[in-house]
Amino acid sequence: MTATTTVRSPLRQRLRRAAGALVVALGLVLPLAAPTPVAAASTPAPSPTQTPSHAGLLLSLLPDANGAYVSGSPLTATLTLRNDATTGLGAGTVHLELGRTALADRRAVGAWLDGSADAPALSPIGDVRTTVLDAEGVSRTQVVVPGADVGALNPGVYPLRARFEAAATGSPTSSAESRTALVVAQGAPATVVTVVPITAAPEGVLLSATELTALTAPEGALTAQLDGVAGTPAVLAVDPSIVAAIRVLGTAAPATAVAWLSRLEALPNERFSLQFADADTTAQAAAGLTAPLAVDDFTPFLGPAGTPTTPTPTPTATTATTAGAVPSTADAIAGARTDILWPRGEVTADQVATMSHYGPAGGDTVSILPSTSFTAGAQGAAVAARGSVGGSSVLVADAAVSAALSAAAAQSDASARGGALITANAMLWFDAPGSTVLAGLARADTRSEEGLSSAVTAFSGGLDGRLDRVLSNPPTELTVSTESAEDRGAAVVTLNQDADKLTQFATILERPADLTVRERISMMRLLGVGLHTTPDDFASALRTHRQATQKTLNAVGIQPSNPILISPKVTVPVWVRNELPYPVRVRLNVVPSDSRIDVPKATDVEAQPSSTTPVRLPLESHVATAEITLTMSLTSPTGVAIGPQQTARLTIRAEWETIGLVVFGALGLLLIAGGIFRTIRRRRAAAEKHSADGMDPSEDDVATDGDVATGEEKHE
Questions:
Q1: What are phi and psi of 120, to 5 degrees?
Q2: Any idea what the Cα angle at residue 162 is, between residues 184 and 176, rounded to 5°?
Q3: How far apart, in whole angstroms, are the C-alpha atoms of residue 261 and residue 225?
Q4: How far apart are CA 93 and CA 80, in angstroms?
Q5: Beta bridge partners of 129
Q6: Over pLDDT 70: what percentage of the chain?
Q7: Distances in whole angstroms, Cα of residue 205 to Cα of each of 21, 44, 242, 519, 638
């Protein structure tokens, strides 16, 4: 079973409930030696309804003050019964039961609350009778259990359970259970400094104007983040890619996004910059990088206006940039610390040492790591918030408290949020009394405004959220117990190799940054702390990224032809393919297999975006007949090979033109000779005939062939 609880109500509502509880408590002066009604003031009053089936019945018990309890005092709680079924719920009884033995450790607390552990020995402390509840109805009851019925409790975390049982007999049984806890303090409570990550994952490499418009709208996710932390002591960890996306759009940036950025930088909360795109620095340290990946050129993302917004000046701001140029600090966040890293927790001691010098210009940094990264917290135990690993300073986020507060921050449902806060309070009991605990919320692009505010303020003790409160504590020497995520470290090495190839390839562009900067940001997004959290998911994303990079490297190439040439001087057609959205400049290099073939060795080509550009190569052959090949390749203006070589096979018949003239000339001569021969034969035949008849040859005998025939006709 799972524990279902509710959150504390607003102050005015709590006061109204407390007033009602006082009246109810008057009827509870007698001890509950046996299970008896405790207190009931249900709202709304449900009407009687038959309940043949009760699927979707939910019960929650929420002790006041997030479960904090002072031994000997009355136990006050809110009991909520929700009927999600389409049929009504009959009257019943909720049995309240309390364990008299404190749960041993955090693991036992977690197992009790999530329902994975069997219930320990529990004692009844009272019953609450419920009335009929309509279909899809909700009933809330203020419960007060006298301190004498609760009994004396030593400091610790105690299991508390509510069980609902239907009162009617002979009808289908409906039951529900809610698990929660009472936390009896052992001294001054620990206070929590909560770090809230402000992130947003775009579809592309940077947030677009459309995405920014949606995120910074009144109901947008980024707006809700600021609404949730405004007026709280939260420490903000901001992804600078959000800031850069707004600034590079310049005057084309949505007005709501510009206002959001101004509001962010005006907040008094302490803040620090995450790595760009919230990239994981542990993976980079595992890859042996002595400096983290960075983005220092935003020219490819200039908006239509062409003039980026100048960053908000800070006491240490750089000099102002000139109009029309991208500021080198487009991703700078006013007042943000740059000496804090917040990577994933799979890390080694050597990598902690490497990351300690990942600050600007190799400056010192402090990494925030989860308590589960260390031997002292490997089993879920609490760890001091300030530590040292081999001389490298670290901040330790309490993993159990962080998880509970993250769950609360994500909840818009009051009951679920309250249950998460009780869990956080129970986990905090195991921290040293009066200590300062660091909690880091999970990366999430969307959170509930109410949930976020509650998570940050519930255990802050009303103190300002400052990392210096933690950093000022003496460090505890810690031993790292985790292993490096080898798949991510190896991925960084591979990605850098691919990026080097792309850098060389990009020399075909007038502005190589159009490819190289996008590739760098894509790499960093792939390494995002909150993204691709499982090995399989990461492997799939890595494979997709590398395929996209290879597609880019193959986007420019040669498409040759294989013609038969019948003339010693012709042009050979070749096509240069460009599938990039940018114009490219390449050099077409040609090497013939026969030195007696003259063809340009190099031809400069400018190919337009997403096009195929024809190139005509003049060729002259000094050989009559041959089978040759032309080996063709592309290089960038700097000599970098682009795409694979291509080979064109040519069949040269350079003498065919002369042979054709000779053949046609010979045919003409044969026709003329045949006509002359025919004419002579006819003349001779006519002369012989005349001689046989005793006649002299006439003038017709010397006429043309056509005339001979006429003369013969006349003679006859």
A1: -75, -175
A2: 145
A3: 12
A4: 13
A5: 93
A6: 80
A7: 56, 51, 11, 9, 28
pLDDT in tens, 527-584: 999 999 999 999 999 999 999 999 999 999 998 777 766 666 788 889 999 999 999 9
Burial label, 255 (beta-carbon count in 10 A; 0-12, 13-18, 19+): exposed
CA distance 706 to 365: 113
Tens of pLDDT, residue by residue over 308-327, are 554 444 433 333 333 334 44
pTM summary value: 0.80
Burial (CB < 10 A; 0-12, 13-18, 19+), residue 705, is: middle
**CA–CA distances in Å: residue 693 to residues 234, 696, 697, 702:** 139, 9, 11, 18
Residues 270, 338: Cα–Cα separation, whole Å: 12
Length of the chain: 716
CB 352 within 8 A of CB 390: yes
CA separation for the pair 192, 402 (Å, rounded): 10
Q: Are strands 191-198 and 235-238 parallel, antiparallel or unpaired?
A: parallel
Residue 84 buriedness (CB in 10 A; 0-12 / 13-18 / 19+)? middle
- Asked if residue 574 lies in contact with residue 610, where contact means CB atoms within 8 angstroms, the answer is no
Question: What are the respective helix, strand and coil percentages of the chain, to the nearest 5?
Answer: 35, 25, 40
Please check whether residue 150 is in contact with residue 68, taking contact to mean a CB–CB distance below 8 angstroms: no
